[in-house]
From TrEMBL:
One of its GO terms (molecular function) is 1-aminocyclopropane-1-carboxylate oxidase activity. The keyword Phosphoprotein does not apply. PROSITE patterns: FE2OG_OXY. Residues 154-254 form the Fe2OG dioxygenase domain. Its cofactor is Fe cation. Keywords: Ethylene biosynthesis, Iron, Metal-binding, Oxidoreductase, Vitamin C. The lineage of its organism: Eukaryota, Viridiplantae, Streptophyta, Embryophyta, Tracheophyta. Belongs to the iron/ascorbate-dependent oxidoreductase family. This is aminocyclopropanecarboxylate oxidase.
Length: 319
């Protein structure tokens, strides 16, 4: 098992190195919950444009607001650890099932159009990755996409964040430790200012900033569907004293009414042939997650199990 952070060259999937590349993805999913993609098919030009617009928008529209928030809360002078706040400046874009890219205030039209184009590329990449995961798991092609589909298709959105320089990074986290609730997360992060860390074997490990790469991590829903074969991993952002870190995280999640449950084939293959996870409606999980994001995920799964006994979800049709 490799101890360095896994970097996957997607270009190799079209070559004689396909088998070892698939093996690398499998190892990353089973042992890390994270990997970094290069040659992912999204052009450097588009990534540079997204980055330039995002950084420009932050400077013009958000930086001053963030400074005012810090001043109003007296955060420069904190002496004790802050555990109910993140040192980040963010806005959200929704893409699926319905886009709000043209409704979000303060964005230049060119920026809106670029983000729309970027989201389309990321959506295709997410679906491509889900099929690669299906292949590694021995599930039929399209299984994960169907599992996420619900009645209106997947939910897909982007959290655009900037982590400004922080005077007391030892007392205030950029983003507190958590696992992601959803499906598969695609992150375009700053290649100069680091800060993202994941928890592996009890140690916090840096996710290395690499130019033009896309970092992938797995959310709670993939842990449930794979019956624990793949795990969602706790991660956090450490604020830095100098430099503003850009982070654009796109979440390809199940539709709100999608019913999530372990894939029957994977339960049959499990050594103890045991169902470890509950069956639930994704929206119900999200309602629970909203209040418990920065706590351990296991009690969330337990709470869904308790709900399951009271709600008969009925048979699931996979069409």
């Amino acid at each position: 098992m490799e101890s360095t952070f896994p970097v996957v060259d997607m270009g190799l999937l079209q070559t004689e190195k396909r088998v070892e590349t698939m093996e690398k993805i499998k190892d990353a999913c089973e042992n890390w919950g994270f990997f970094e993609l290069v040659n992912h098919g999204i052009s450097n030009e588009l990534l540079d444009t997204v980055e330039n617009f995002t950084k420009g928008h932050y400077k013009k529209c958000m930086e001053q607001r963030f400074k005012e928030m810090v001043a109003s809360k007296g955060l420069e002078a904190v002496q004790t650890e802050i555990d109910d706040l993140d040192w980040e400046s963010t806005f959200f874009l929704k893409h699926l099932p319905v886009s709000n890219v043209y409704e979000v205030p303060d964005l230049e039209d060119k920026y809106r159009n670029v983000m729309k184009e970027f989201a389309l590329k990321l959506e295709k990449l997410a679906e491509n990755l889900l099929d690669l995961l299906c292949e590694n798991l021995g599930l039929e092609q399209g299984y994960l996409k169907k599992a996420f589909y619900g009645s209106k298709g997947p939910t897909f959105g982007t959290k655009v964040s900037n982590y400004p320089p922080c005077p007391k990074p030892e007392l205030i986290k950029g983003l507190r430790a958590h696992t992601d609730a959803g499906g598969i997360i695609l992150l375009f992060q700053d290649d100069k200012v680091s800060g993202l860390q994941l928890l592996k074997d009890g140690n916090w490990i840096d996710v290395p900033p690499m130019k033009h790469s896309i970092v992938i991590n797995l959310g709670d829903q993939l842990e449930v569907i794979t019956n624990g074969k793949y795990k969602s991993i706790e991660h956090r952002v450490i604020a830095q004293q100098d430099g503003t870190r850009m982070s654009i995280a796109s979440f390809y999640n199940p539709g709100s009414d999608a019913v999530i449950f372990p894939a029957p084939e994977l339960i049959e293959k499990a050594e103890e042939n045991k169902l470890k996870y509950p069956k639930f409606v994704f929206e119900d999980y999200m309602k629970l997650y909203a209040g418990l994001k920065f706590q351990a995920k296991e009690p969330r799964f337990e709470a869904m199990k308790d709900m399951e006994t009271t709600v008969n979800l009925g048979p699931i049709e996979i069409v």
